[in-house]
Amino acid sequence: MVRAVPTWLRIAAWCFVLLTGLLLLAPLVVVVGVSVSESQFIVFPPQGFSLRWYEKALSTPAFLDAFWLSLGLATLVTATATVIGGAAAIGLSRGRQGSQLETFFLSPLVLPSIIFAIGLLMLWSTLFGTTSFYVLWLAHTVIALPYVIRTTLAVLAERDPYVNEAARTMGAGRLQRLLLVTLPQCIPGLAAGAFFAFNISFDEAVLSLFLRNPNLTTLPVQIYGQLEFSPDPTVAAVSTVMIMITLVLMVLLERLMGLNRFASG
Amino acid sequence: MTDRRETWLLLIPGLALLVLGFVLPIGRMLVLSVQDANGYSLEHFVRFFQDSYYPLVLWRTVYLSAVITFFCLLIGFPLTYIMAHSTPRVRLWLIIMVILPLMTSVVVRTFGWMVLLNRSGLLSTALRDLGLGGRSFQLMHTEAAIVLGMVQVLLPFMVLSLLGVLLRHDPRLEEAARTMGCSFLQTIRTVVLPLALPGIVAGSILVFTLSASSFVTPSLLGGARLEVLAGSIYKNVTQTLDWNFAAAQAVILFAGIALLLIPYLRLGARGHG
Predict the structure, then answer these.
(1) Which domains are delineated in chain B?
(2) Does A133 contact chain B (CB < 8 Å)?
(3) ipTM for this model
(4) What is the pTM of this model?
């Protein structure tokens, strides 16, 4: 038996992993650090400990309004993307349309959203004069849809096809089989897709920046605006809240589907 | 109702949504780019390429994206190799390390870099203390800042593109190479790299595409002086309100990306179910 990896390389590998971890996580740690600092300037490492910036964020209407808008938007996007994407995935899994249709459905995943953001803004402005909540809802659903389709297709690929056959032999109708056999089989995929959809919409900045107007400022857009001009530790407090929400979603995702499985799929 | 009818009924809401929110806007953007006050013309494209400023922006976008892709691959490949060869428990932690930043808003991550890179930030101070750069040296608003920030933003995409491919190999191939007398590095070069090539290509194309079309991180870390194409599009849409010119720039970006993406989509459609 040959040692797969020499010892010096094993040590080098761990140093490398630590450095990469530092690179990946440093910006997040810094933001959390700034948010609990006592100083009124943005400093890292933090000086002292205080929650005053969280208090200030909670009493800033601009942040509160943006938070509720983002939360409402993400919830609606999750619902529509899960229902429409789930249906599409079941349709695609029957697989007689070939992979071209699947490629089409997944294309918002790889085509950068800046490409269609301008067209969406232009279409909406000529039709209705200004952007509205509905266009943001539509735009976010478009980019969340492929995630739901992918997770659901992955689950459907592993199901037992004979359950459906068995149900048919036993006399279950078309709708019964769809609702009582296929749908329950999809649930882990739909749930994972729903969490992704929520995360995508809640964090999305590009489409929201293009489609923003004074009454339509999502949380990431509000943060972006502050960063362009005068960031103070309040922004860090709000950003930390966003990191915590991401963390919660990730833990749920791990419980539901297993990140291992999702990441290597 | 036939099977076919039912399948199409399931697909139609999704298709309608994509047509309304994706296909039509792209079409509108394409038309917008060739429209001017008097009808149709290519004047916006002519203006872009004849200007002394915009070709420079385009070049900066391409060259920064290439550098960012290179570093993502340089860091991403060894990291993914280690992930693929660790125990499932360790791998899970490494995956969390990669996915947590991926799932965090780009705006938040860029904010973190702004804190680290500005004049009084940890990184700029450290480099000054080491005697690199003058007294007023800072990393903010440099190309290095853009590269550093973007590598952190895009590295997870590279890792996830590679991980699936690296995990799918038969580990015995590497063992066989080692038993037959290959050194560790020889095994990497002659066995692992060729097998990982589809993932390397897919990941690089993805990172390059995303990098070329980003503006949030480049404009916050690079500032107004180091404009990239996507930043210029955003500025033309929201500040100078020259939508036709913005659309023309988006078409240029779209054309460049399409050249890279079409082969990638073919690969992707074959790769997973």
Answers:
(1) 54-271 (1.10.3720.10)
(2) no
(3) 0.89
(4) 0.90
